[in-house]
Amino acid sequence: MSDHMPMWVAVVGATGFQGGAIARLLTERNHRVRSLSRRPAGDRPPLPGVTFTTGDLGDLDDVRQLFAGATHAVVTMPLVYEPARVRAYARNLVVAAQETGVLRIVHNANTRIPAGATGVAAFETRRVTEELLAASGVELVVLRPPVYLDNLFSPWTGPALVDDGILGCPLPAAAPVAWLSHRDLAEAVLAALTADGVAGRAWELGGGRSLTGGELAAAFGRGLGRAVRYRALEPEVFERGLARVLGPGPAAGVAGLYHHLATGADPLLMADDGGEAARALGLRPAPVEEWVTRQPWQIWSSAPTEETRRRA
Questions:
Q1: For residue 265, is it within any domain?
Q2: How many CB atoms sit inside 10 A of residue 46's CB?
Q3: pLDDT per position in the chain (312 positions), as tens?
Q4: Distance of CA 29 to the CA centre of its chain
Q5: Hey, which end of the chain has fewer CB within 10 Å, N or C?
Q6: Which domain holds residue 27?
Q7: Domain NmrA-like spans what residues (predicted)?
Q8: CATH code of the domain containing 184
Q9: Do the domain assignments include residue 227?
């Protein structure tokens, strides 16, 4: 199916940051999008053009309703890391996809996944999801992104960056990382829904090149037009801050990835793939400095703006 022919896409996770970026791009390109949410309409992020059904991934009938009439599906699992619960979600997705005749599923694993078992829920629950979807018999494309640039536009990074020129991140300074934006992820998903020759394997998405912490700070400096220094945060400190936003369970799940990387056991896990995925999917991820220039960083500044001075 051509990218120019409208699809009807069931998007799992559209109320999250990554799923939301995917849903927005699909509607921009005139595809029909339906998602599933437990939240009432007034408590969801604005997603013009997206139709919602009320329900839960743990209820098979709700998932069937999500998939009814869909030609394609995109799966980004929620921030849930209990193995039994994730397995139940994945099984319901498999049954619904089989019964409704979905042509292709794109699974955004939301992270790279090490080759061997790690005991880290952030990796292993996504590995299980991949395995169950792959065994469904439905055509599957798996995308494994590295780390999102959008994670750095946050209340635990923005103020120190804007006020002090310090880019804090819970990744070792020497680790090479292929940073990717949510928008570039969405472009990769859209391509994976229709591209020939990409089904049946996992693609390690890259951001064009790998950057160490110092190189990332230099790219931010070029985008901001000022000096920026990199500071590697302790994963424990990051987890405590994240827990205040997400709660302790999801925060521990997300932070498990950074705890693993801090051990140095898999130093190239988040590195660029040499451009293989970009070539296969026809992608040209934006350079880091270009992404930086597009963000409204001043919202994190503690210094009063002209607007706040006028209101005082």
A1: no
A2: 7
A3: 444 578 999 999 999 999 999 999 999 999 999 999 987 777 777 888 999 999 999 999 999 999 999 999 999 999 999 999 999 999 999 999 999 999 999 999 999 999 999 999 999 999 999 999 999 999 999 999 999 999 999 988 999 999 999 999 999 999 999 999 999 999 999 999 999 999 999 999 998 899 999 999 999 999 999 999 999 999 999 999 899 889 999 999 999 999 999 999 899 999 999 999 999 999 999 899 999 999 999 999 986 544 433 433
A4: 20
A5: C
A6: 8-146+180-207+272-284
A7: 9-240
A8: 3.40.50.720
A9: no
What gap in Å lies between CA 217 and CA 161, rounded to an integer? Answer: 10
Cα(211)–Cα(219) distance, integer angstroms: 9
Work out how many domains the chain is built from and give that number: 1
* Whole-model pTM over 0.90: yes
300 lies in some domain: no
Q: Quote the CA–CA distance of 20 and 182 in Å, as a whole number.
A: 9
Tokens 């591209």 belong to residue:
195
Which residue do the tokens 């090149």 mark? 209
